[in-house]
Structures are given as structure tokens and as C-alpha cells.
# Entry
Amino acid sequence: MSHTAHIPSHRKPRQRASKSALRAGVAGGVLSTIAVAGAAGPAQAEPVTQTIEMPTITSGFATAVAASAQATQQVALDLETQADEDAAAEKAAKTAKKAHAEAVRKAEAKKKAEAAAKAKAEAEAEERAERASRTSERTTLSASSGSSDSGSSASAPSSSSSNVSGSAASIVAFAKAQVGDAYVSGGTGPNAWDCSGLTQAAYRTAGIDLPRVSQSQSTFGTQVSLDNLQPGDILYWGSAGSAYHVAIYVGGGQFVGAQNSSTGTVQRSLDYDRPTGAVRVL
# Structure
């Protein structure tokens, strides 16, 4: 065996016959062109124009592309429709929730209004009943006072003490009948009083017109000691002529007065709030 038998060849592998023939043809053409150009001299060479044919798109491929585009468009339309439906559903849910909340609010408002109306009706009915009771009581007291005065006049027409006693009873009865009424600054009745408004109205039942304010009422009459009080006497707090509160002594160590907005018109013991002095008008 030769010593070069295992040495690999450095030659490139043979190319295909078609490529070799193509190259041979191209080379031959180029040499022929050069030879012709040399023989012709310096004549102007014309440009070589080469036309490249593009592959023709078959009708089947075009149909597939059109179908794909149509499918893509349909998917987009479906997604858009789904988005619109979702938005509509969300809007409907919000509207329903809002309507429900509004219905609940109206129901609660109606319930509160009905409760308030019921409470108001009950309060008005109670007030009417109370007024009717007071009116009946005042009518009875007035009739009783009138009968007492008539009887006293018949038996002793010249007796001034009997007249005073009857007037005092009327004043006391009127004052007691107002217990429970509200206190309102400047109130003169029939169901709300301030202190001097109540005493003025009570004395009016006896035909006596007192001054309107407590300062003047505290000097309208004869000053008497708190140890010598009689029913119907006017009690005052503060000094005579500058009193800030008045009430009516009803006997038994008690008085009736329109005290303040917290208590209203009350009947209390003298020890509850000891007055400064008293005046006797009758």
C-alpha cells in the first residue's frame, strides 16, 4: 500500500452537474461577449435588462387569506359584542342597586314619618283631653265660687271678709288648675305662662287687674310677713319693687308658680324655694 493512501483529499467535493453546466455556460457567454466587444471597438455597450418573474399567488391561497381575515373580523366583532353586553350588565346591576337603596331609604323615611305622625296625634289627643279636664275643673270651680259668693252675700251682704274669702278661693283654684302647664317667657296663657302672667290671670278671675311684671306686682298691695300668709297672697323673690319672680300662696305652706322652662307650672312647699316677701291685695 502506498504511504499516501490514507491522506484525505483536499479537493472540494464535486458540485452538481447542473451548477457546473450553468457556470460553464455563463463563463462561455461572458468570454464571447468580451470577444465581440473587443472586435467591435470602442462602441457604446447597451445595458442588459433582466426580468425576474415572481411566483403567482394561486386562487386557493387567496381564498385562505380572505377566510382568515373574515374569521379575525368575526372574532373582533364577538369580543366587542361581549364587551358591550358586560358593560350593559354592569350598568343594569348598578342601577338596580341604586334603586334598591332608594327604595329602602324611602321606606325608612315613610316609617319615621308615620311614627312621628302617630306620636303627634297621641300627644294632641292627650293635650285635648287635658284641656277638656282643666276646662271642666275651672267651670266647676267658677260655679262653686259663684254659689259661695251668692250665699255669703245673701246671709251677710255687707260683710267684706266674705267677699275676700270668695275671691281668694277663686284665685287659688285657678292657680292650681294650671299646674303642669308650660313655662314660656312672656306667656299669658291659656296653656303657657311666665310667673307674673300666671298671677295676673289668677287675679283677673276675682276682677282684679294686677300690673303685668313681677317688679310692679311685688309692691301692689300691703306687705305682709311670711309668718302671717293667707291663701291668695302674692309671694315674691328679690326685693320689693325689683322682684325677679312671683307666685301665689295657696295655703298649707305651699305655693303655685310658673317656675322655669324645665319645671313649668308647679305646686311646691315654701321650703322648696323660700320667698323673700309677700303682698296682700285682697
